[in-house]
Give the backbone structure.
Amino acid sequence: ERERGPRMHPEMLELYEITDHVLGVGTFATVKEIKLKETGKSYALKIILKKTLQGKGGMLDTEISVLSKVRHPNCVSLLELFETEDAVYLVTDLAEGGELFEQLLQKGSYTEGDAARLVYEMLLGVEYLHELDIVHRDLKPENLLFHDKSENARLMITDFGLSKVLTSGNDVLMTACGTPGYVAPEVLEQIGHGKPVDIWSVGVIAYTLLCGYTPFWGEVSSLENTNTRKSTGKLAKSFIDSLLVRPADRRPSATHALTHPWFRAMLEQDMVTP
Ligand code: ADP
Ligand code: MG
């Protein structure tokens, strides 16, 4: 017996070597590095204990149906799924570069050029999810992972546990969820929310990358002013201000946000037009 925990799926154990390397621990899951025996290639295994879900089983179904649809360079994709009585095991791409959260802690903050690239990639992922009518609802630096350890590693959105596939594009979601600090005010106020909540979170993340701290510290988002640090350029401020607006329907779509002049000013031409 290797350790306490749920019994592993027998077929999974035949195909994969489960390493002791824990990649991360989230709200609902532990994520381990695993290796496909046939090729030796590493993947991530997200282990979700059914008992930690307690009546939130619907959430799990959501995550699975959402993840299995997603194929985009800036989103983590689901490759395989195993289920036992106690747990669900999701095999996904391995994001070897770790969390944006960790890198942000190390760096303190980013230059405008670096922040613009990261936010641009984030928005490409969000644009794609929104095209599939998926609202992530928990975008934050812990749920943004680097594909590899290189300097210009691609950023990938993960953890669709709280997202919902909207049946119609304009559906209003009413449950309170998400993480204080990054979550849009209409979520906290429970007056319904859709795709614009992700745009709000991108605005908060953009601010955080440039300043090193979140604009709304702790509890409820007060929209007094977004006093971005003085050294931050005009275009960056105008970008952030355009996302952190309410009511929600005044926020740009991801597609529209990607056209902001901040990106044109900061990114090399070949990145903006792939
Ligand atoms: P939870 O739903 O419990 O928050 P996450 O999917 O966010 O679970 O995973 C928890 C943590 O595990 C992440 O914050 C990250 O550090 C790590 N992690 C998750 N998926 C991967 C992956 N594909 N590659 C590398 N690390 C990962
Ligand atoms: Mg998470």
